[in-house]
Amino acid sequence: MIGVVIRGITLLIKNMKTAKKNKIFVFFGLLVIIFAIVVLLYRPVIFQEGNPWPEIKGIVQLKFGDSDIVKLSGSDNKFMTESKNGTMIHDFMKTKGYEFIEQMGSGYFFKSATGQTAVATHKYYSRRYSLWNITENIDNIKVIY
Length: 145
What we know:
By secondary structure, this protein is α+β, with helices and mostly antiparallel strands. The protein is built from 4 helices and 6 strands. Strands 1-2-6-5-4-3 form a 6-stranded antiparallel sheet, with helices on both faces.
């Protein structure tokens, strides 16, 4: 009689472990489905620049780092900032030896003391983050005042 009770308890414990495993499996399955739906819904935003990993890395560096502008990996002249302050690019270019000349649309024109020019073009990645493409050493730009 005691053997039957022990066997019943053992089967009950096994069933409880299986039920717990099933609940965990269902939970993670739902997480994967929710993640897939979010990626499908926001696909145009996430993949607007191609591979999103450099931008994701830039966002993490901006959020958890202490710099206001970060260089995106995989590109020599692409940078990311938070969109809250548009004058950040002026300070960044000043550290590189350029003075702000003027803005035309999304293009910011800079000139160095040696006569070299640079253009920083702005593009919103999202409402919170901006992408900057900075082209330096342009000799053929004529700025009309």
